[in-house]
Amino acid sequence: MKAIKIAFLVVAVVFVWFAQNHFDPYAVSILNNIAIFAILALSYNLINGVAGQFSLEPNGFVAIGAYVTALFLIPAATKIDMFALDAPSAGVLAMHTSFLPALIMSGVVASILAFILSIPVFRVRGDYLAIVTLGFGFIIRIFAMNQPTYTNGALGLNDIPEKANLYWTGFITIVTFVIMLNIIYSKYGRAMKAVRDDEDAAIAMGINTFWIKTYAFMTSAFFEGVGGGLMASMLTTIAPDQFTFLLTFQLLIIIVLGGLGSMSGTILGAVLVMGGTEWLRFLDQNMDIFGYNTGAHPGLRMVVFSILLIVLMLFARRGLFGNKELVDVFRRSK
Amino acid sequence: MDITTFMQQMINGISLGSMYALIAIGYTLVYGVLRLINFAHGDIMMVGAFAAYFAHASGIPFGLAVILAIIAAMVTGILTDKIAYKPLRNAPKISLLITAIGISFFLENLFNVLFGGVPKAFSAPNYLTKIIHFHGIVIPMTVIIIPVVTLILLFIMLWILNKTKYGMAIRSLAFDIPTVKLMGINADFIIMLVFAMGSGLAAIGGIFYAISYPSIDPLMGVIVGLKAFAAAVLGGIGSVTGAVLGGFILGFTEIVVVAFMPELGGYKDAFAFVFLILVLLFKPTGIMGQDLERSRF
Amino acid sequence: MVLELQNITMQFGGVKAIDDLSFGVKTGEIYGLIGPNGAGKTTLFNIVTGNYTQTKGKVAFNHEELSGLKPNMIVQRGIARTFQNIRLFKSMSVLDNVLIGFHNQANYTYLESILRLPRYFLYEKKLKSDAMNILERFGIADHAQTNAASLSYGNQRKVEIARALATNPKLLLLDEPAAGMNPNETADLSQIIQNIKDEYGLTILLIEHDMKFVNNMCDKVLVLDYGEEIFEGRPCDAIVDEKVVAAYLGDFKHA
Fold it and tell me: Do C83 and B297 touch (CB under 8 A)?
């Protein structure tokens, strides 16, 4: 059992090293994209799939992570030049660290906000997390627009130093994956699943379900913040309009396709959905069907994806992996 | 601020609140019966507004266009339930919420592909948009018509819920679906009725919104839907009167805060969110709601 | 007295589900709550476990007032329950269901589980063997890795009791433990309940309709009707009590 796990890790690490050094730039950029979405989807699956608390937060926390990392990486002189709407605040100018601390700060800020949201949301029953996090995504954008001294308003931030490469994204994906599995196979993961299956029964087992849900939510937010930081450094430019609900929607498809509650499935889902997004790019462009030009249809891909999501939910609710992990498959056949 | 401006803002608040109220009723009805946040509700409102726009643009008289829009929204609402929610009645709740989001995103993107994302100017007939001057207060006709129509619709809704056989069934369904089935009420028909009523009211709300702003676009339902849901929670989810009350409170707050503190204008869309958080913190059952979430043993 | 209820009244809207009820359960007793459907038995359980807050009256556990405590805190004080309609964690294995009962005894932090520090391994190993131990008591150790939802009805009941036992209770509340079981299974279950009671030093409060089961198991019974006490005493005396027979003749026919 242990040997299989170590073999998986070695293969993953070697693949990341090999790809960074030998793949062409286009392939590397796609892999980077897959890795970042995998990090986001893994953490999103913890709150949605494992703990069963439907949330729509990722775009908000990714935005926060992206801004925090960006502000930590951009040198003060560049900030002064860049902030066109209003001078950057003193705090913003003072922010400066190397990449890893910046990413960790992104995660910490996101999970603190998650904790603050937990208090109103998890003290009551009902699916308020979904609507509150959906609202939160909007509020973050409104805030980014209206606080130019921190965010440079609608103009966003550019010239973010490009620190992220496949080593960063690949290794953080692996670390996230391992941490998620460590959580799932512990008393906390079991309690999260218990809350998902039957909250009253979980309480009858003496579990403080508020804290279990809050742990799951804060952990998700942490890695979404980190993923946002990676994204900012990868794109080198960010603006409020980038972090729309579309991002959350893509992640939702990944975890539903992979299997709600399955981290192994999430990795596969990220590969398929991000690959599929590239492949379906033609849908949004001009097409000639039997000599008839359909014209460009921006958004057609999303129509296809939303139909896919509904069909998956109706006919294959368990996704590719159900709520099992790859290790469970080995465990079964021992 | 003088009295005229004050009156002006009050009237605007009533009008905005009415729109939120009409849309909030749909959320509260569906939530009461299915315990489901119908994420597609805001988009059904958008469908209603688009239907009215195209019907009117093709030369159909406005009144008839409104009726067609209501029917279009009702059909969309009922189909949403039949296709996406009904097959999942016994599935885990999260499946329903995910399909709800799927339908919402589907409608937004479908309309975006079909009609483009650029806002379309919404023209209403003159008798609706003309402006009345009354002791120095400038009142567009809509601002009077909207609250009046809302109140009439509210009374009709309350009459249906409290005095008719179907209304009783809806209210008992809010407490327990299995029991209602035992009582011999066709639960599926009642749920269909709830979607039809909620969607119809949303269409009227959407048309009012389109007249007031006056434009429509495929994403118009998103923020308004979110706010209307917040209004429903504020009023007490499950309660129709509460939804209307919540809508008015939210509408007033937006207008009044922006009027008195213009520097907060950029945050106007965030008030609903603040309300939502405060209600959940201090009175999760809202102003008029009952505790629908009490666990069943 | 391990559990003492004083003047409990529970009102739902205008309806009094329980009306001014007082009784006590002695340490080591098996105490039965019986009465026709709707008599308020499960409501009483929900008051003791903190799921409902009584309109009036006091509940004391080991001379400590319970009112105002959250349900999960009451479990930690030592009161565990099972549900009338079995409520297992359906996506999980039998072993995991029991391990959830051990949640508060696994003494490692969230960070320790993320970093896989020694205490994680220490407690996981110990609790897994404890859990297997309990499963063996119930004769379902072979099913440890089976999905809980795929067990037979009788075995699911056993898992539910095993899971409750894992929370390390002093007082166990069983809501119709023998419901839906055939006579063989019921006899088997009675034996198991006796055994675990002696071995873990438990006090048991149970609701049951099967009068044979109650007669065999209970030291004392309380008969409820419309939320009011109509009899308290030995089960064999209950069966011949006039008021009890009158209130609840229908249910005796099965016995």
Answer: yes
